[in-house]
Amino acid sequence: MEPTTAGIILVVEDEDAIRLTLRDYLRRKGFEVLVASDGVGAIKQLLDFDVDLIVTDYRMDLLGGDYWIKFLRKYCPGQDVIITSGFLKPEFEIPYEVVNKPFDYSDLEKRIREILPGHGKTKPPTK
């Protein structure tokens, strides 16, 4: 396994086009990226890998929305999380940073680099 300094990011997004495009973009920028299409798949990735940051959609069919936020808060209390959504209303309280859709990938990358400066992790095995 080769070391990487950028960190391991878990992208959780039920929309295939966004999930795969964001994965490819972040990999080109030097990040190791794992993906899941819902909260259940994300839990599997969290159990298998030491994730530095979760970038997750809020609204997903399987374990999304309020229950996903409650899970993250209870079982991943020290985890860095960025929530993406096109559906949240400003009065709805989310304990994590929220990035509204549509978002610019380069702006999201800048924010990720601010959260993960100088992380040294080992690349997960390619699946």
Question: Please, could you describe this protein's structure?
Answer:
The chain has helices spanning 16-28, 39-48, 65-75, 105-115, and strands at 3-4, 8-12, 32-36, 53-57, 80-85, 97-100, 121-122. With 127 residues, the protein is α/β, with parallel strands linked by helices. The protein has one domain (3-122): Response regulator (Rossmann fold), CATH 3.40.50.2300. The strands form 2 sheets. A 5-stranded parallel sheet has the order 3-2-4-5-6, with helices on both faces. Helix 3 (65-75) links the parallel strand 4 (53-57) and strand 5. The radius of gyration is 14 Å and the shape is globular. The protein starts with a strand and ends in a 5-residue tail after the last strand.
Summarize the main sheet.
5 strands, parallel
Mean pLDDT: 85
Q: DSSP helix count? A: 4
For the largest sheet, list the strands in their spatial order: 3-2-4-5-6
- Count of distinct strands: 7
* Fraction in helix: 25-40%
Question: So, CATH architecture?
Answer: 3-Layer(aba) Sandwich
Radius of gyration: 14 Å
Q: Structural class, please?
A: alpha/beta
CATH topology: Rossmann fold
Distance between the termini: 13 Å
Features:
single chain, 127 residues, alpha/beta, Rossmann fold, 5-stranded parallel beta sheet, two-stranded antiparallel sheet, 4 helices, 7 strands, 35% helix, 23% strand, disordered C terminus
